[in-house]
Amino acid sequence: MTEPVSASPSDVIAVRDLRILFPTRDGHDTVKAVDGMDFEVRTGETFGIIGESGSGKTTLGRALVSLLKPTEGQILHQGVDPAALGARAFRKHRRDFQIVFQDPNAALNPRMTIIDSVMEPLEIVGEGDAVSRRRRGIAALERVGLSPEAADRYPHQLSGGQKQRVNIARVLTLRPKVIVCDEVVAALDVSIRGDVLNLFADLQREFGLTYVFITHDISVVSHISDRIAVTYLGKLMELGPAEDVIEHPLHPYTRALLSAEPIPLPSHLRVDRRIILEGEIPSPVAPPSGCRFRTRCPSVRPRCADEVPAWREVRPGHRVACHFATADGPPPDQRQAQNTTIMGEPTCA
Ligand SMILES: Nc1ncnc2c1ncn2[C@@H]1O[C@H](COP(=O)(O)OP(=O)(O)OP(=O)(O)O)[C@@H](O)[C@H]1O
Ligand code: SF4
Ligand SMILES: [Mg+2]
User: Fold this and answer.
1) Where do the record's region annotations for Disordered lie (predicted)?
2) Whose alpha carbon is nearest atom 26 of ligand 1?
3) Which residues contact ligand 1 via a Cβ below 6 A?
4) Is 267 domain-assigned?
5) Range(s) of the domain holding residue 262
6) Is 175 in a helix, a strand, or coil?
7) How many domains does one find in the chain?
């Protein structure tokens, strides 16, 4: 059961009972990529999303910018349901909600010059003439730290970091309100990730952007996010202010993810070893009954197989989907109490 969540004018996106299902390849079954999510993204914030590979992050990100339609439920953009708009109104609306992907090459046509790629979105929406589009394209390239000389090059003549800057310039020309950043630094050399993240932060201040930042890197997400959502197998496990999620994780899954990081846990949650989750993430075609984390949860109890945990606010603005989480934290790790070894890998991408 889901607690009702009030809509607020400060929410740029409101997600209600969202489900996104895909047919399996043989057509006989359904992949539940997003299987019931409720949350809001507030204007001007950085909303971080972490979770293991296959937990539905990219599917969710694509739906947030209307590249995918909800199978069930709604995604409201400033109170408007884009799925209910006519074609022309939809095109106008969509430019406010943009996405940048992990692969710097994904949005760049290898046969187009950089400036042509940057101007392309403006051409598609029919804004300005060729001269003004080029002027805006060059200004956007300069804003992301690329010299005008880069404009007439081709993608293969730029580094990965430079190409990712081009992708940012591409969406900036449209002056969006929201940018979904899907693993945008994951493919980049570690040495330049910081520069690209700083660029995102500068652009947010300058243009009042809202970010939905999808990443498997907890240190990145904890550093840049105002709030953090933790996904597992198509559902949210936990959502709250970034500092509170890091300092006071409420869900056993979040605790396990954090225990693998160099971020020091608060003393009451500190474990003398890394909590390693057992086994693989189950199939989203047939997720476990009750709590879908139960097959790997170190705190599992009999009730977990029978009842889907409610999405509850347990600390101020901090929600969790676990029967036994309290304001003090997750339920005790049963296996740690029994001093047994916990096997497996808690990778999250
Ligand atoms: N078009 C599609 N058709 C069928 N299944 C899909 C489709 N897109 C995604 N899926 C499945 O939905 C689930 C969620 O995929 P998604 O790409 O959203 O996960 P993710 O959290 O972004 O993973 P990663 O961290 O690896 O990028 C996966 O099981 C995936 O195989
Ligand atoms: S509901 Fe049960 S299985 Fe799910 S996270 Fe809580 S203790 Fe673990
Ligand atoms: Mg993904």
Assistant:
1) 326-349
2) 53
3) 22, 31, 33, 51, 53-59, 284, 349
4) yes
5) 250-337
6) coil
7) 1
